[in-house]
Design a protein that fits this description.
Structural class of chain A: alpha/beta
Order of helices and strands of chain B: HHHHHHHHHHHH
Oligomer: heterodimer
Number of strands of chain B: 0
Strand content of chain A: 25-35%
Helix content of chain A: 25-40%
Radius of gyration of chain A: 23 Å
Largest sheet of chain A: 6 strands, mixed
CATH superfamily of the largest domain in chain A: P-loop containing nucleotide triphosphate hydrolases
Shape of chain A: globular
CATH class of the largest domain in chain A: Alpha Beta
Number of helices of chain A: 10
Radius of gyration of chain B: 20 Å
Shape of chain B: globular
Order of helices and strands of chain A: EEEHEEHEHHHEHEHEEHEEEHEH
Number of domains of chain B: 1
Number of domains of chain A: 2
Distance between the termini of chain A: 33 Å
Number of helices of chain B: 12
Largest sheet of chain B: none
Strand content of chain B: under 5%
CATH architecture of the largest domain in chain A: 3-Layer(aba) Sandwich
Chain lengths: 314, 264
């Protein structure tokens, strides 16, 4: 069964602690989002897990194999994209992928068929071009393809859609959603919408410390949602919402038909606000103003460890 | 995944062929090959154009001719070794290539040995072309029987050993640099200038010309064993071979340890 495990992973550079006693374990299939601001320790964790850096303390295990002791066996069933890697610039895309296939023991006939399949799914650039001549986004897609080439059980991705245009991001996202059914994916990302769409679980990290490791579903339950966007079928002025004044903190017009309502976040208030909005005019949509993970992210990263405790204990 | 693990040997072959292709795609390989053909071939063509009398006037025997031609080999072996070893490791850590290559399920020792053998094959190929030119000239201007085959063959083997020693030294320096370009330049400067200065200083202050620690000193035996005979060279052939072998093994070991420890 695919697994990813960090046991007290710690990385210090002189007096600076980039990662402080990080521990987690995931098994089976699914996707885990690894979230945090720049410099939080996300890439450091992924580098330690894939053997690109050595931990000061602790260890990383991939499929039960200690990466520090036997990196070849640990990485055997693992595809990685760390730090927007660059294949050899003088190699064509085809050769780049075939080299990875050869390193990973994929028979060449099977590899070529898989490359064709990935070329179609990821809209890969012409593979007879040297990778050094490709744009950043094109190269990134080749790299993502190479991480999927051997159909690994574990996939570790560091900002996988970085440098991709919106259409390319959607293509990669769709592949990840499909892959997570049978594979275990750990991906860092700045894009909360991406993590929301792809991941079943999220880890929040800041200042090298893991603040929260929870399913997206539970985060949604615990997150305190304080803003809703209401879209009416006809133009509405905020003054028309006088009847809900005691329930809300503020109302801002986003457009003639769309209002953002800031309220206490209490669970009883939300249906009541909707009821009174419907009384004012026909409501087309009524939804949280922010994503669940955005709320959690802001509470955690903005509020530091205290925020994490609050979210975890609520 | 259902694919069975690949042996280190098979992965070594992949690393080797990839690196050879890498060298063949560089300007420096074709420039070095062009230089060797221009120098060796140019001299041969010039002598051929001037005629047998001219050759006989300047070179009494095939040994004289080949010895003179091989005077360039030591420099050539050092330059190709520096060129093909100077950025072999720093490429992984000075660019984002390391994130791609080192995250593959391949032992670093396998990657390193594949690259080393590739660098050796390419470097020794260029050195071999030069020997071939010297040999063809010797046979052409003199006769097959006049060519000192034994000393020429031994000289070639020593040149290959020297090339391996220079490569190990270059790999070692390369592992200390984060920039491929800077690593390459530093390797060339250290090998061609730094070691010469050290040799000169030691000779002046210690009053000895037996520089047992210097690969440049060992290089003198390459053409020396042709012109002075296998038993008459300075340094002796065994010492030149020993120095080259120690460089080959010693610096390769240091390069291996540094490559194992290096982080991206």
């Amino acid at each position: 069964m695919p697994s990813i495990e960090a046991q007290g992973l710690t990385k210090r550079y002189g007096g600076f602690t980039a990662l402080d006693d990080a521990s987690f374990k995931f098994e089976g299939s699914g996707a885990i989002g690894y979230l945090g601001p720049n410099g939080a320790g996300k890439t450091t964790t992924l580098k330690l897990l894939t053997g690109l850096a050595r931990p000061t303390a602790g260890r990383g295990l991939l499929n039960g194999v200690d990466i520090g002791r036997d990196p070849k066996r640990a990485l055997w069933d693992v595809g990685t994209v760390i730090e927007s890697p660059e294949p050899y610039p003088w190699q064509t895309g085809q050769r780049t992928l075939e080299m990875v296939a050869a390193f990973r023991g994929v028979p060449m006939r099977e590899a070529r068929a898989k490359i064709e399949e990935l070329a179609s799914e990821l809209d890969l650039p012409p593979l007879d071009k040297k990778t050094g001549a490709l744009s950043k986004g094109q190269r990134q897609r080749v790299v993502i393809a190479s991480s999927l080439l051997s159909d690994p059980g574990v996939i570790i991705l560091d900002e996988p859609t970085s440098g991709l245009d919106p259409a390319e991001r959607i293509a990669v996202r769709n592949i990840l959603v499909k892959l997570k059914r049978e594979h275990l994916i750990l991906m860092s990302s700045h894009l909360l919408s991406e993590v929301t769409e792809v991941c079943d679980r999220a880890i929040f990290i800041n200042h090298g410390k893991i603040l929260l490791n929870e399913t997206v579903e539970n985060i949604a339950k615990r997150a305190v949602d304080t803003q809703v966007d209401v879209e009416f079928a006809v133009p509405i002025h905020p003054d028309q919402l006088g009847s809900i004044a005691e329930l809300v903190r503020s109302v801002v017009a986003l457009s003639p038909t769309k209002l953002r309502i800031d309220y206490s976040g209490h669970s009883d208030a939300r249906p009541e606000i909707l009821k009174r909005c419907v009384a004012v005019g026909p409501v087309l949509s009524y939804a949280s103003a922010t994503l669940v993970l955005e709320d959690a992210y802001l509470q955690l990263i903005g509020g530091g460890v205290a925020g994490a405790n609050h979210l975890a204990e609520d | 995944m259902t694919h069975s693990p690949v042996s280190d040997t098979e992965q070594f072959e992949v690393a080797l062929t990839t690196q050879v292709r890498s060298y063949l795609s560089t300007y420096r390989f074709w420039a070095m090959l062009g230089l060797v053909l221009a120098i060796g071939g140019g001299i041969s063509l010039y002598l051929a154009a001037r005629g047998a009398g001219f050759v006989a006037h300047h070179f009494a025997t095939a040994t004289d001719y080949i010895g003179a031609i091989l005077g360039f080999v030591a420099f050539l072996a050092i330059v190709v070794g520096a060129f093909f070893g100077g950025d072999a490791i720093s490429t992984d850590f000075g660019t984002k290539t390391g994130y791609y290559v080192l995250a593959q399920p391949v032992k670093r020792s396998v990657l390193l040995s594949g690259r080393y053998v590739a660098a050796f094959l390419v470097s020794s190929g260029i050195v071999a072309v030069y020997y071939l030119i010297a040999m063809v000239g010797g046979v052409g201007f003199f006769s097959f029987g006049a060519v000192p085959w034994a000393s020429l063959g031994l000289s070639f083997l020593l040149a290959l050993l020297l090339t391996a020693g220079v490569l190990s030294f270059a790999f070692c320096l390369s592992s200390l640099s984060r920039s491929p370009a800077i690593g390459l330049v530093i390797t060339i400067i250290v090998l061609l200038v730094g070691l010469s200065i050290i040799d000169g200083v030691v000779t002046a202050f210690a009053g000895t010309s037996s520089l047992w620690f210097s690969i440049l000193y060992a290089a003198d035996a390459i053409s020396g064993m042709v012109t002075q005979g296998i038993s008459g060279t300075t340094p002796p052939v065994w010492q030149a071979a020993a120095i080259s072998a120690v460089y080959t093994v010693g610096f390769a070991a240091v390069a291996y340890v540094l490559y194992q420890r290096e982080e991206t």
